[in-house]
Amino acid sequence: MRGKILFLTGIGVGYVLGAKAGRERYNQIKRTADRLWSDPRVQQRVDQVEDFVKEKGPEVAEFVGDNAKKLASQVTGRGSSSTSGSSRSGSGTAAKTTRSTKSSTAKGSSSSSSS
After folding, report:
1. Is the Cβ–Cβ distance between 83 and 73 less than 8 Å?
2. Stretch 69-96: mean pLDDT, rounded?
3. What is the CA radius of gyration of the chain?
4. Which one, of 60, 94, 89, lies nearest residue 74 by Cα?
5. What is the pLDDT of residues 19-77, one digit of tens each?
6. Rounded to an integer, what distance in angstroms lies between the CA atom of residue 48 and that of residue 64?
7. Count of CB atoms within 10 A of residue 90's CB?
8. What CA dihedral angle connects 8, 10, 12 and 17, to 10 degrees?
9. Cβ atoms of 90 and 76 closer than 8 Å
10. With helix as H, strand as E and coil as C, how does 20-54 read?
11. For residues 102, 107, 112 and 115, what is the CA-based torsion angle, rounded to 10 degrees?
C-alpha cells in the first residue's frame, strides 16, 4: 500500500513539474514561431507562393480532373472517348462487350474441340 501511495505521489509531482516546464517551453517555441512568421523575408516568400498557387491552381485542377475521368473510365470499362452521357448507355456497352466475348470464347472452344 505504501508503494502505491509513493508511486501516485511521484506521478503527481512529475505531472506538476512537467506541466510547468512544458508550458514554459511551449510559450518559448510559440514566441519563436511568431517572430519567424512575422519576419518580412518569410512574408515575402509566402506572398510569392500564394501568387504561384493562384496562377497554377486552375491548371492543376484541370489536369487532376481530366486524369481522374480517364482513370474512372478505365476502371469502369467504358471508353475514354465519351465523358458525358447516361450510365445506362455505358453499362449496355459493357454488357454487349461481355456477351460478345463469351460467344467468341464458346465458338473458339467448340471449333478447337471439333478439330
Report:
1. yes
2. 62
3. 33
4. 94
5. 777 778 778 888 998 999 999 999 999 999 999 999 999 999 999 999 999 998 888 87
6. 23
7. 16
8. -170
9. yes
10. HHHHHHHHHHHHHHHHHHHCHHHHHHHHHHHHHHH
11. 170
